[in-house]
Amino acid sequence: MLKVNVVSFQELSEQEQKLQPNNGCGKEYANYIKITDGSETVMILSDAVEPEDATFRRDFSNVVSAIKKAYEIGIRDGKRLNCEDYHWLMERAERVEELEKDLNEWQNEALRWIKLFEEYQERLLKVEYVEELEKDLNEWQNEALRWIKLFEEYQELNKRYREALEHIERIQSVDVAKQIARQALEGE
Residue 21 and residue 46: Cα distance in Å, rounded? Predict the structure, then answer.
């Protein structure tokens, strides 16, 4: 099977190292593309070139032949595929398509659930806000009831004062008037 790897000088065999050009900054510092077919090295491409020679017509001309060689190996390996392997590959490809369709459906379903969850969170925030408002409203109602009760007590007290003052106006005696005023103040 054809493999293409980018390797360093140290990853090449000793024989492969000896065959490499020593241009540019030196073969030890160059990068290499190693093309193998099984255990056989088909070609090694190096970027150890002089800048002025770095063209596909000159130092990189072997890239074209590497592509052609890779194509030939691909055709060769493709012809090795028997009918049974071909059908197996087709079944796998169909299965992959089914799985991709299922995955898309699951992703859409997940997105739908995420949207529902976000909507639920918004509603929950509104419910919490309403509950907070209801709590505040209950506090305000209790405060209002307290004020109403105080108002009613003051009305009753005011009523007693008024009655006492009206009664005092009718009385001539100061001592009796003091006694009536004291009784009104004491709530009797």
Answer: 8
pLDDT tens sequence across 41-84: 888 888 877 777 666 666 667 777 788 888 888 777 767 667 77
- Quick check: is 11 in a domain? yes
How many independent structural domains does the chain possess?
1
Structural domain containing residue 30: 2-80
CA dist 105 and 111 (Å) reads 10
Residue 166 in domain: no
pLDDT computed for residue 147 by the predictor = 92
Is position 85 within any domain? no
Residue 98 falls inside a structural domain: no
